[in-house]
Amino acid sequence: MQPTKLFDYIYYQKENFPQEKAFGYKKDGKWVYYSTDDIIEQANQISCGLLKLGLQPGDKVATIVYKNRPEWTIMDIGMLQVGVINVPVYPTISPNEYEYIFNDSEVKYCVVGEGDLYDKVTAARPNVPSLKEIFSFDDHPKCKSWKTLFSDEGIEEVEKRKANVNPEEMATIIYTSGTTGNPKGVMLSHTNIASNVNGVKELLPIKAGEIALSFLPICHIFERTASYSYAYNGINVIFTGTDNLGGENGDLATLKPHFFTTVPRLLEKVYEKIYNKGVALTGIKKSLFFWALGLTEDYQFDQKKGGFAGLKNSIADKIIFSKWRDALGGNVKGILTGAAACPVKMARIFSAAGIPIREGYGLTETSPGLTINRFDLHGAMLGTVGPMLPGVELVIDDTEGDYREGEGEILAKGKNIMMGYYNKPDKTAEVTKEINGVKWFRTGDIGKLVDGPGGSKFLKITDRKKELLKTSGGKYVAPAPIENKFKEDFLIEQMMVVGEKQKFVSALIVPANEALMAWCKEECIEHDNVRDAIQDPKVIAHYQEICNKFNPNFSHIEQIKKFVLIDDTWEPVKTDGTVGELTPTMKLKRRVILEKYGNEIDSIYS
User: What is the pTM of this model?
Assistant: First the structure.
């Protein structure tokens, strides 16, 4: 029987392949695991406790954690079983944003993890009349433990509530991280998310009992849907953080996972470390490293090389790429990346090294998946985000805009499309387009469908509709493909293309600090810090060489004519707690960056 409600997946696991280590995490330096039965038992106790609080179907409870943990999953299932709406919130937002989200959704209770989360919520609480109490997943001197909610009384009522939950009812409200203005609450039903989970069941390259690491924020729909998928497939989920992934004693090396989801920036950082180690080598070892790296340049999915080319690949695999795989634990069967565009170079290099990288595409509003590159034969194509998921329909709409041949706004239809934006019917209407009496969701992304292997249509994303800039000559330029291409160079950490209403296109470039200092040392350019290094004519000249290398990939109007090197690190939240330049899903906040670096941009065009 195929699950239809989100809490069904853990019961499906119990019935088909109960696990002793269904969910785990590190607590006080030790790995702690919950069995399938543990999760169900504690979720039922939470459900009973929520009934004791008097919560009714449709009431909202917020959950906030810095690191994913089994307790969050237990709380989520416990809420869903009795019709309580989970409002997961990003931990890095400000108290003002907490205040807005809590008031908009009328949150009655909040459960927080460790760190400063209790203090943040407490700061917002005086202006949130609906918020009755705060609980903590950890021992906290100022608030009750979530364990005080546990109860064994009322399980009969819990079972009634479970039976009465309609799959079409709202299960969660997820507030999108807007670059401007207040966030919008995306209403997702059980059916919305379950359609995605059920659609990818046969697409994961791992089986029951194998290990998936989970470190992307579970408050984001990408990782949350993945966690339901893992439960559905009987995969053991180990929650961890990004702070201890790499290295000899890192979680990748010690836990030896078979699968995980990630964002492109983490892949880029892993590659930068590998590349910098290669640069630091000497003699024959260095020559072999870059020889092996060179073999990846023409790699394509499903590629089988024989003869002398096959022999070279076998040698490179044995002496170089096997060490890359060992650094990730040696068992990785696949990595799925999403949330932002993945540079083709990253997918190509890692996949050529025997670490299969596949990119998917979707939005919070689509629960999230619309397309995914598969791990099986003819299921993936570099430079695309894959074919449509089962049950998803896409069309390319070129009726409103100035697009290249075959391109247009991507419209989507399917059971995974959100119910709408909470309390914002006008905003819901803005992202809905009716064609011949059929309603489609407007993604705001520009793309085209291309012919792929096996006769399938693959989606290629070309830009964000709202991010197109228009030069003073009236030409439209798509920044994202340019930025993604330039970031393939290991000396570029971040980049934003500018040029709205200007004669030519330029860029703000944030150097990769560690890589730049290593390059300076190799080139005998002596500087103690990045601030001084980016003023050096030799460094500036090298970044100009990078521009000269990538510019021929683009039309004349799209080429970077000038650039400014920025001594900064772009983050979702700055170290002083102020708003950063990136959204929590690592997308550029273009308006924030334009305002912050107005003087630098003016200097380009003065």
Answer: 0.85
